[in-house]
Amino acid sequence: MKILTANFLTCAVKACKASPAAFPLHFSDAELEQEETEFQADFLRNILPRIDWEALVVTAGELGFTSITSAKPEGDAVTDELLQELHRFLLETHVMEGKLVCGNCGHEYRIKEGIPNFLLPSHLGAYGIANGQMESEKCNREIKRGHNIRVTTLMI
Hints:
Order of helices and strands: HEHHHEEEH
CATH topology of the largest domain: N-terminal domain of TfIIb
Number of strands: 4
InterPro entries: Trm112, Trm112-like
Organism: Blastomyces gilchristii (strain SLH14081)
Largest sheet: 4 strands, antiparallel
Oligomer: single chain
CATH architecture of the largest domain: Single Sheet
CATH class of the largest domain: Mainly Beta
Number of domains: 2
Keywords: Cytoplasm, Methyltransferase, Nucleus, Transferase
Pfam families: Trm112p (PF03966)
GO biological process, one term: tRNA methylation
Structural class: alpha+beta
Shape: globular
């Protein structure tokens, strides 16, 4: 998984959607690999406005890349040297094994062979912990009342 990808990921638990602590996801036990690619200055200039710089600085610090400046560069501050450094960090650095950890709920998304697994366990589901429990309790009440409940489960 390229580091650039992590700058666009957030926790999939619904209860975390509104929490600022759910972004960025934090790397844990990360095994990094460098893979040289062709330098793409235009791509980096175009993607730079979309990057959450504060999250990028946090991620860089966690992974030991201390050369990323804390202030987001704009205008003349976007030098070829900076673009080379960003290219090396965002596009050439891959996380091959490890975990992404939510700062809000603590859920860990495993990264195996460079692919993060964002499938949630059934107890977290699409509604999150609290809402999932409420939905389950609601279904149990309806069944006790004699109502037919249709439950559809998608197995992947």
